[in-house]
Amino acid sequence: MSEGGARGRLSIALLLSALIHLLAGGGLTWPTAQTPELPGPPIAAVLTQPPAPPSVAAPAPAPIERPPADLKPPVPASGPAPTAAQTPEATPTAVTPAVAEPTVAAPETAPTGAAAETTGEPAPEPPAPPPQRPTVPTGFTIRYVVQGSEGGFTLGRLDHIWQSDGRRYALSAVAQASGILRLIYSGLLTQTSFGEITAEGLRPEHYWLQRGRRQLEVHFDWVQMQADLGPGRPPQPLQPGTQDLLSVLYQVSLFPPPAEGRIWVLDGKRQREYGYRELTRETLELPIGRVPTRHLRVAAEGAEESFELWLREAHPQLPVKIRMLGNRQGDAVLLAESIRGLADMAD
Length: 347
Hints:
The chain has helices spanning 3-25, 114-119, 247-254, and strands at 139-147, 154-164, 168-177, 189-198, 201-211, 214-221, 226-228, 236-237, 243-244, 260-266, 271-286, 289-300, 306-312, 319-325, 332-340. By secondary structure, the chain is mostly beta strands. A 15-stranded mixed β-sheet has the order 8-7-6-5-4-3-2-1-15-14-13-12-11-10-9, covered by helices on one side.
């Protein structure tokens, strides 16, 4: 074979190899008949709400079997730790379904109205409302002329001063001598009482008295139901509603009791039960003017001391005349000369 023939065959082989590679790689495209391309139908995207998944009732939880208390967990035998190839596949953890809270049925109520008539059972009575504190003045001052006896010599002036916020009260009495007695006495009497206002009236918590050099102090402990009379004196048991010597005047005045009754009073040494009753109704001529009044007498059985009150009939019923009887310092009569500070209530 000639050299030229060999070269020709080699060229043909190279051309065939190149053609095969082009066909396999997609580099050569065979011409085809030109068919016009038709546009496809338009594609429309519409968003729709996916259907709700069907409700599946949660299965009831399987009862949990508790092992006996005396069983102990098994202890693994000692040995080499398993290799990754020997470790079994992890077992999927079981999911405990949520347990719905049990529904507690509302308690049945007693039938009322028409329902009560249908069942034949009487409707229960509504609970009684809590007792309300009575309305009292926020403040007033009564000035009295002090006489040694009815129509007698004037000894001085006495002021009763009342203050309250509706829940608590503060009451004081201050006496000043007048005329020639001013040279002898700088003060005849000073008293204070303060405490709480309840639905039953005044509940004193502290009482203090000074007459000359004599002082007396009482602390009312309503939790322990006893009164502390100061150092060296044993406590006194308290009766419900006990008053001191000053608060008793306004317990009877601002909280009008029945025409007759009883009240406990602690005078600083002992506790006594006083009886009171209405004697009559009369109109008095006083330094303050002409006043219609209720006349009450308050006295303790077997005791010499007593006092009488004339309460004005107008609201609030304040003492416009006080007569102290059987006192060791002598009898005294207090006549109202003025009443100030009643702007918040009918005078």
